[in-house]
Amino acid sequence: MPHEGPLDLVRQHPEIAVEFVQGAAGIELPGEIAVSLAPTDMSAVVPVQYLADMVVLISDAATGEPVLAVIIEPQLRDNDTKRYSWPVYVTTARRVAKCPAAVLVVLCPDPAEAAKCRQVIRTGHPGFDLAPVVIDSGGPPGRDGAGGPYLTVFAASMGGIDMESEPGARRVLDAMASTGVSDADRLRMTAIILKLASDAARQILEAMMTTSEYEKTFVERIHDQGIAEGEARGEAKGKAEGKAEDVLKLLDARHLAPSQEQRQRVTSCTDSTQLDLWFDRAITARTAAEVFAD
């Protein structure tokens, strides 16, 4: 499991984390909640930086108050150093998010290594022992088809669905082809799954994508999405280049004599807002320095 695969899916659809804590950890949440990504910097007032891979904040939808911080850590194998950093993540996440509770979820596909990650971390403080919630390939949320398309694809990314078999590959393709998935999300999920899949699984998936059953959803839509994104990038680039030329023409017309470095800043800038600001300044500025002042 490449480090970022399952995390990319959670980043794309943070609501997956709710299934982690309700299904795997058995934690009860309010009836209506809001879910968002939170800062991953778990640095405390110590000389060492602690940076979690991902933190998802679950809040009460009615009050906006944080309910639970979910720290998500992918782990390919057991690591003794985590015995010291994981308790820090939990306590510091509560402080950073000003949240009454935090839970650590470890994503470790190898069942043998996952068993090691489940070992209780004893901090020595009475009543403060950390038992990480560990998800492995043996039973990831979404493996049984419950929880929606994103969770099914997550289960596949954890190795919980056999994509080297046609039924398994079909389950994953059906999930990504779901009407509840946008074309942009489908494109991202397809890239993630094809990157994670074994050579055998990739051959099956790609062959099925070109069949009449899936071709319109995957091949044609992904192609159209790529064209649309390319056109958007081209249009934005062309617009920025035009504005850059206008800025330089105005600077020259007013004899403000911009330096070569300043000219380079203009021609390399792709931010239309910044170019507009320079143009507006160039109308009244007495020097080129005034135009480019931060």
Give structural attributes.
alpha/beta; 294 residues; extended; 12 helices; 12% strand; 5-stranded mixed sheet
Helix count, DSSP H or I runs of 4 or more residues = 12
The residue fraction in helices comes out at 40-55%
Q: Which segments are poorly predicted (pLDDT under 50) over 5 or more consecutive residues?
A: 43-48
Q: Please, what is the oligomeric state?
A: single chain
Strand content: 5-15%
Task: Specify the biggest β-sheet.
Answer: 5 strands, mixed
Shape: extended
Kindly provide the radius of gyration, computed on alpha-carbon positions and rounded to a whole number of angstroms.
Answer: 25 Å
Number of strands: 7
The computed structural class is: alpha/beta
- Which H/E pattern describes the elements? HHEEEHEHEEEHHHHHHHH
**Overall pLDDT score:** 82
Structure commentary:
With 294 residues, the protein is an alpha/beta fold. Helix content is 51%, strand content 12%. The strands form two sheets. A five-stranded mixed sheet has the order 1-2-3-4-7, with helices on both faces. Helix 1 (5-12) runs antiparallel to helix 5 (149-157) and helix 9 (215-253) packs parallel to helix 11 (272-284). It starts with a helix and ends with a helix.
